[in-house]
Input
Amino acid sequence: MFAERFDKEIGSKYGIVPGSRENSLYNALWVAQALLRKGSAKIADKRMLLFTNEDDPFGNLKGVIKVDMMRTTLQRAKDAQDLGIAIELLPLSRPDDEFNVSLFYTDLLGLEGDDLAQFKALVGERFEDLKDQLRKRMFKKRRVRRLRFVIFNGLSIELNTYALIRPTNPGTITWLDSMTNLPLTTERSFICADTAAIIQEPVKRFQSYKNENVMFSVDELSEVKRVSTGHLRLLGFKPLSCLKDYHNLKPATFAFPSDEEMIGSTCLFVALHRSMVRLKRFAVAFYGNSSHPQLVALVAQDEITTPSGQVEPPGMHLIYLPYSDDIRHVEELHTDPNSVPHATDDQIKKASALVRRIDLKDFSVCQFANPALQRHYAVLQALALDEDEMPEIKDETLPDEEGMARPGIVKALEEFKLSVYGENYEEDDAKTDGKAEPSRKRKANAMKEYSNYDWSDLADNGKLKDLTVVELKYYLAAHNIPVTGKKEALISRILTHMGK
Output
């Protein structure tokens, strides 16, 4: 209802009409606030994005009407912000006319001082970030599956599981017919090896036992292999100290109770969750399907909140425990433990200072996009829009060279290198560079010997094969061509380079 009214009555209007009390900006803020009223600000981010090239929406008005409409619009924006709804401005500058945010939107956004200067400087970056976000695949937080958690015989609770972080993969490939462009379907048929007839009956398996073949149907075989019912069955509890970091071999799943089918699941889950947090225990349970049964650990997580809202929700993380042969024992690199080098206190101090300098503040894996996926979607965009050039992709995983060149980081890095290599580490670098000197001498010698041969004549008359491998390498080294391989390979490279 609100969305339709916004499109028809509000979103289609442009600016404030002179001589009218109709305030389209006020109405837009009111409708957006009504749409975002549902849901708690603790579990969702609520934002309004204002795209406009009009830096003074009330510029056509004068006198008391203008003051009154500005006051009511600013109050409406403040009411929305008090409800936890953030308002973001994305100004669109017109040709030969720079967007002046100070005319009206400074008061609406509450910008002043350094915030105002920073806003003007980052306007271009905000549009680039928005464009990159649109190319990313957004996933709604949806339930992965519903589980039945069996506490003991006769007592079960219902859990919903969620995948918090998963790698984003390209969409599945759909094979199309080259003529009709329709999706292809795959069919499989079994043919008898003796009669070449298509087998219509279901395929059966057999197992040799005492010189006889015992036949099994597909249903019987799946029933024999059934180890787990697919439910989550509690086995017991262990101290959190027994759970090691290397036990977490793949992304965990977040579990939260649900009362949709089993009333009282939330109450029992809360009691179990509080006891596990208080006693510092984790639950060991049996889980899995018939093809992949395994043990899992249920680790209770307490709620973490800040004045701005919830940071971590209460619930349990379902960690998939490894099998015994999945854990590899650390190999002994040195037979004598005393011969293993250890860092000194000064080296540890310098290394800690360097790590603190280059530590990323408020780091999140969601801040960085997969460059391979970005390129994949950019190619799809270019094909779909019939673009001649592919959009430029920004690789956010590359090192920040400008940031690493800051004086504080350079100083911490030099102090760390000095503590590890000592004062003569530059001399060591010089010695390393000196190893390249024989290479330059060899190339100079190859250039000298190269001029003693008429390579074009040798190639035309087929006499390259009469030269030795060392002589053939004179040509290759003089032209920076690889010199490895047998004699035939060297001759082939020379002829290819000469275009013969």
In short: Residues 427-438 have pLDDT under 50 and may be disordered.
